Amino acid sequence: MQQSNITEYVKTVCEQVRWKKAHDLISEEIKDHIVDQKNAFINSGLDDKTATEKAIIEMGDPVLIGTEFDRSYRPKVEWSIVILTCIMVFMGFLVRYFVIYNSAENINISISKDILSIIIGFAFMTTAYFLDFTIIGKHPKKIFFGLIVLVIVTFTNNNPYFSPTTFSFILLFFPTIFAGIIHKMRNKSYLGIIQMGIFFFIPAVICLNARTISSIIIYSISCLMLLTAAILNGWVNVKKSNALSLVYGVVALVSTTSMLVIISTRSYMFHRLQGAFNPSLEPQTSGWLTIFVRNRISGAKLFGQGSLGEYAGVTLPSKHSDLLLTYLIHKVGWVSFIVVTMIVIIFIIRLFKLCKKQKSVLAKLVSTSILITFTMQVFVYVIYNLGFQLLSPLTLPFFSYGSASIVINMILIGILLSVFNTGDLYYDDKPKHALNKNKLFEYSEGKITIDLNTKLKKNLEVNNEQ
């Protein structure tokens, strides 16, 4: 009977709160404080029934309490990320249209397909935003093996929307899923690290079948950074130095062996290495494009079209996709490079600040994984377009042409928005630990105090001013 009275009180409070995702958190908070108050009354000599009734009465009017919670707990759309994403998508479309308009030769770009990709991308981004990102922490293994199946299907299917090219972009999801794997296995000892290693190497082995090794590099570095962060933050129950030695020892051994095997079985990789570091050694083959790009870069001006030099009459390949920045630098001037990279850098810095604010391990891991994945794509793309072409770029997110790259990066942004929206409601341990930090309720000497120095006070002040 006493329990039903508490349940009824909590239900009435939650009925006033429109954001249903906050109900569990609020219910836990109120129940804890009623029970604490009830126990205090019992210790002072009251029976269980009387103590419960008195504790509920001292909590106050449930409608008033619920109304205040409703003002404090509301979905928060991170509009800065939404606006910056829209700016990049819109600018990317204009830049691609600019390339088509100024190209004498026929470029394999479909404007209608490009627009459709953007619409689909926004639809998926919105869907990912409304989905609960904590599913990544609850079911990482199921999602992991589901993605493995999807990767195998895309690698073997000839459908243009599910081609081997798409395969490389689907791999961008794996660092985020690996974040869920780390969260699931946190606080484990060496066995946990070994299990994480197995989940790390499965996609890496599959990546060996990708057309470029960029996917392997981006995936491996992203996961390695997440695992390093987990170890340094003490989320693995192993001495930090031992854990780091184990992880990096195995990675160094496997990566060195793999590199030797790849170079020995794929001779073009050796020539490509030569072409990247010293293109003059391969001027007619792997070094030609590097020399060509550096020629265009060296002839660029701050404003306006640069000089063509000895490559006058030679068309820049892949200027709508892999070499879009090189084309803009040559055609419009360095000012275009500055504008595009500044917007992307502002976006990355904003993401970094928001990731740092996340309190739970899962929210921090998921948001950081997407931040690293996004930043790695940009880094590989920019250095390639500036003339260091060791790795083929995947994409400059939202700018270079490609349906799969636009849709998949927008899904990742949608997951990020979900983290920023509900991350404060998720706690890795018992919710009351984190809630007590808010000190919305304080119990002392048989009295419950509602601390209006919290957000509730701000809301009350705003209402009073109105």
Oligomer: single chain
> Averaging pLDDT over every residue, what do you get?
83
Physical arrangement of strands within the biggest beta sheet: 1-2
Tell me the strand percentage band: under 5%
Shape: elongated
Low-confidence stretches: 430-439, 452-466
What is the helical fraction, as a range of percent?
A: 55-70%
Rg (CA only): 27 Å
Structural class: mainly alpha
* Secondary-structure element series: HHHHHHHHHHHHHHHHHHHHEEH
Alpha-carbon distance between the two ends: 42 Å
Number of strands: 2
What is the count of helical runs? 21
Largest sheet: 2 strands, antiparallel
Question: Could you characterize the architecture of this molecule?
Answer:
There is one protein chain. The chain is mainly α and 466 residues long. Helices cover 69% and strands 2% of the residues. The chain is built from 21 helices and 2 strands. It has helices at 2-15, 23-43, 48-59, 62-72, 79-101, 111-130, 135-138, 140-156, 164-170, 174-185, 190-207, 214-232, 240-265, 267-277, 288-298, 324-331, 334-357, 361-385, 403-422, 431-438, 455-465; strands at residues 441-444, 447-450. A two-stranded antiparallel ribbon has the order 1-2. The two termini are 42 Å apart. 36% of the residues are buried.
Summarize the SSE layout with pairings:
Elements: H1 2-15, H2 23-43, H3 48-59, H4 62-72, H5 79-101, H6 111-130, H7 135-138, H8 140-156, H9 164-170, H10 174-185, H11 190-207, H12 214-232, H13 240-265, H14 267-277, H15 288-298, H16 324-331, H17 334-357, H18 361-385, H19 403-422, H20 431-438, E1 441-444, E2 447-450, H21 455-465
Antiparallel strand pairs: 1-2
Helix pairs in contact: 1-2, 1-3, 1-4, 2-3, 2-20, 4-21, 5-17, 5-19, 6-19, 8-9, 8-10, 10-11, 10-12, 10-18, 11-12, 12-18, 13-14, 16-17, 17-18, 18-19
